[in-house]
Each structure stands twice: as structure tokens, then as C-alpha cells.
Specification:
Number of helices: 21
Radius of gyration: 22 Å
Strand content: under 5%
Number of domains: 1
Helix content: 55-70%
Mean pLDDT: 93
Largest sheet: none
Low-confidence stretches: 438-446
Distance between the termini: 50 Å
Number of strands: 0
């Protein structure tokens, strides 16, 4: 069957999921996503000579995203908080200091279009916002341009994501060339159904973070010996962290890869950049309130976890209650130690090993995390393009099983499906690691 036909047939499936499927319609979502996954596997599995032109594939990747421009996010309700925070900031209020469930009762809420209807859709009205400053700035721009229309806010935010995704596709091409990797790997990300649906479709700003993270990597790999490349990479990394905090995880690896002098210089510039991004919001309560929300993330939220669910089960056997308060801290400590070990084992003489080290560090983090939202995996998919590892692709296709939790009125995860998901993911991961063990995946610094 022609790849062109398969890809063109995928467009109605994207439209069907995006415009005509709610996350409670799990069987419909699963059927359509399965079709998209098979089309994706068929496409990326073709030989170079069997693929259509580069321009056609790129056009299809952008068309799939553009087709979602007018949809209302249907698999996530996070964007309501984006709109809430943006309207606060656009009117001069500090979103880090405002608790929605309290503010909605004040007289100031209505003139800012912070309505009871919007408040009712918030999934965390009792928590302070955790979205970093660059995210907040984008929310505010959308609210300033479209101060009263929820749909208008949504479209403007999606345009930001579409712009970032377009930049990411071109960066992946340049990075693949620099690392002497086949350009066909770029389609792993460009045509990935989870990436398209969760980033462009459901308005997750991992898209913007991925763009700046890849831009930082590109500048570092281009010539880290040049001061302006190093400084530019540090600024881009600071912006990425100020969109989503997750790239902080890579600082020990970059410190080791660059060496102490350049690594410390990069970390210093990153720290200054993050500090400047937070400076408009500084207040005595900022660290306390944002810290409390981050603490809730590690010690309260549970969704689609893997190793943590095994730890939780053992906790119930031993002490008879949910040990997330302790397990969250212990597992986070294992992540920190694991990242330090990965950094120590990373070779400073090989550019490809830098990306692989970042991939492994992020894999460790998500394997031990208490929440495992599907869109988190998009960063893994982006990094995998620049490596020989395909387990992130398997993970991205299996993550749809987590949406089974929403098929009933009462939220309830199906642990059998989650077990199936991670059996495939970890099975693929172990197979690839064993198969490549002779390739000195992460050689020591000796």
C-alpha cells in the first residue's frame, strides 16, 4: 500500500479524534488511535526508497497539525488554567499568588472574564499555579489579544505551539545532519500521533520547551568552544526551563560533557536567565506557594505510573496504606543519584552520547515518577530521533491505554491495561539495551 494513501487516510482519523471524540469515549479513541499508530508504524518502517518525497512528508506533518487549529482540547482540561492564569497576568495580577477558588468570589474576577463557568472547568482550583514564567507570558499574550473569548485564547495558544513545532521539525533535521543520523528518523517525531494530538491538539507547552531544548543542543553541538555558541545555548536552555522545569534534569550531564570550566559557565548563565524570567513575579510568598504546588506533584498526584505503582502496592502489603508521601521522596532521590551516575558515565568526546545520556536521564525520571501523563513522553520522542533507540516510540503509542481511566463517570485506572502498557515499554527497552550493550552506550571517562 502506498505511504501517500496511508498518510492521507490518517487525516480523517485525526479529525475524528480531535473534533468528535471525548476522553470518556475510550473505545472510539482507542480504535482511531490504533489506526493512526498502524499508519505511523507502516510509514516509519518503510525503506528510504519506498518513502514519498521529503517535501510531501513534511507537508503532511504540518497538515495534520494545522487540521487541529480550531479544535477544543478534548483529552486534557489543563488549558482552562492557562486561560485563567493568562487573564490574571494580562490585568496585572501575579498568578503565582492567586488561589482560584478564593479569587472567584471577589469582585475583581468578573471584569477579567474569570467567570464561574471557567472556574468550574479548572482541575486544580485549590492549588497555586506551577507553570513557569515564559509559559505565563504566552498565556498573557493570548489573553491580551483575546480577553473574553475562550476559543480565541485557545487558537492563539495553538499558534504558538504550531510555530514551535515547525521550528522543532527543522531543528531535528539540522541535528540529524550534524550527528550523521539519517533524516528519515525525523519522521519518528514529525508523524508521531501522540506528539500531534497532545501538543498541537491538547495545547501542551512541552512543544515550546522541546524547541528551545533542541536549539540549545544544536548550538552546543555546533561549536561549544565558541563563547557565543555556549552563551546562546545557555540562554535557550534557560528559556526551555522557564517553560517547563524538566530540562533542569540535564544540567549535571551538560556539566560533565562540557567540562568544569565551560559547564559551570553554562550553569551560571542558565541560573541568571531563570532568575530574570522569575524577577517580575518575585514576592515573599512566591517560593513557598510554587513550592507547595510542586510538592503536591511529587507527593499527591498519581496517574499512569509504572515502578511507583509497584512500590505503592508493596506499601499497602507492609503498612496497609498509600505510602506516596515517602515513596515520592525516595524515588526522587533515586532519580537524582541516577542522573549523577549517567552524567559521570557520559563521554565528553562524543556528541551522540550527550543526547543518549539526556534520553536515559529522562527515561529514569518518567519510570520513577508518580504521575505519567501521556504528553510527558513527547520530549522522549524528540530525543529518540537523535539516537538509535526506539522504545520511546513504543511508549508513546502505548500511553493511550491510560485514557481508560476516564471512560466512566467515576475516575478509575485500569491497572491491567497499565501493566500491559509497561510490559511492552520495558520489554522493548530491555531488549534494546541488551542488544546494544557491546556498543558502549555510555562509556566511562577513562
Amino acid at each position: 500500500m502506498s505511504v501517500r494513501i496511508v498518510l492521507l487516510a490518517s487525516l480523517p482519523a485525526y479529525v475524528g479524534i480531535s473534533y468528535f471524540t471525548q476522553r470518556s469515549d475510550f473505545l472510539q479513541l482507542l480504535f482511531l488511535f490504533l489506526f493512526l499508530s498502524l499508519a505511523y508504524i507502516w510509514t516509519i518502517g518503510r525503506k528510504e526508497t519506498e518513502l514519498p518525497s521529503f517535501g510531501f512528508l513534511l507537508a503532511m506533518a504540518l497538515l495534520f497539525r494545522l487540521a487541529l487549529l480550531g479544535m477544543g482540547p478534548n483529552l486534557s482540561d489543563d488549558y482552562y488554567r492557562f486561560v485563567w492564569d493568562g487573564r490574571l497576568l494580562a490585568h496585572g495580577w501575579n498568578p503565582y499568588l492567586i488561589l482560584p477558588k478564593t479569587f472567584i468570589t471577589t469582585a475583581q474576577a468578573a471584569p477579567m472574564s474569570l467567570t464561574p463557568e471557567l472556574h468550574a472547568h479548572l482541575n486544580s482550583p485549590g492549588y497555586y499555579t506551577v507553570y513557569p514564567p515564559v509559559n505565563q507570558a504566552l498565556f498573557a499574550v493570548a489573553a491580551w489579544i483575546s480577553p473574553h473569548s475562550l476559543w480565541g485564547n485557545m487558537v492563539i495558544l495553538r499558534l504558538f505551539i504550531l510555530l514551535a513545532e515547525t521550528g522543532t521539525l527543522f531543528l531535528l533535521i539540522r541535528l540529524a545532519d550534524r550527528l550523521a543520523i539519517s533524516r528519515r528518523h525525523v519522521w519518528w517525531y514529525a508523524l508521531n500521533p501522540l506528539v500531534i494530538l497532545e501538543l498541537t491538539g491538547n495545547l501542551h507547552f512541552e512543544a515550546v520547551m522541546i524547541f528551545f531544548l533542541l536549539l540549545a543542543l544544536y548550538l552546543l553541538l555546533k561549536n561549544p568552544q565558541k563563547t557565543y555558541y555556549l552563551a546562546g545555548a545557555a540562554v535557550c536552555l534557560a528559556i526551555a526551563i522557564s517553560v517547563k522545569l524538566i530540562p533542569l534534569l540535564f544540567l549535571p550531564i551538560l556539566l560533565r560533557w562540557l567540562g568544569w570550566r565551560k559547564g559551570i559557565a553554562l550553569c551560571f548563565i542558565v541560573g541568571i536567565g531563570i532568575g530574570l524570567s522569575f524577577s517580575p513575579f518575585l514576592s515573599p510568598q512566591l517560593i513557598e506557594r510554587m513550592g507547595s504546588s510542586i510538592d503536591l506533584y511529587f507527593h499527591t498526584f498519581e496517574f499512569n505510573a509504572s515502578i511507583y505503582y509497584l512500590v505503592r502496592w508493596l506499601g499497602f502489603q507492609w503498612v496497609g496504606y498509600n505510602i506516596i508521601a515517602v515513596a515520592g521522596t525516595v524515588l526522587s532521590s533515586f532519580v537524582l543519584l541516577g542522573v549523577i551516575w549517567i552524567a559521570w558515565k557520559t563521554s565528553a568526546s562524543n556528541s551522540g552520547h550527550l543526547v543518549i545520556a539526556c534520553l536515559f536521564a529522562l527515561t529514569l525520571y518518567y519510570s520513577l515518577a508518580t504521575p505519567g501523563q501521556p504528553w510527558y513522553l513527547t520530549t522522549l520522542v524528540a530525543l529518540s530521533v537523535l539516537t538509535p533507540y526506539r522504545y520511546p516510540l513504543v511508549w508513546s503509542l502505548m500511553a493511550v491505554l491510560s485514557y481508560s481511566a476516564y471512560r466512566a463517570t467515576v475516575y478509575q485506572e485500569n491497572l491491567l491495561l497499565i501493566t500491559l502498557e509497561y510490559a511492552f515499554v520495558f520489554g522493548t527497552m530491555i531488549y534494546e539495551l541488551v542488544r546494544k550493550k557491546r556498543a558502549l552506550i555510555l562509556p566511562t571517562h577513562d
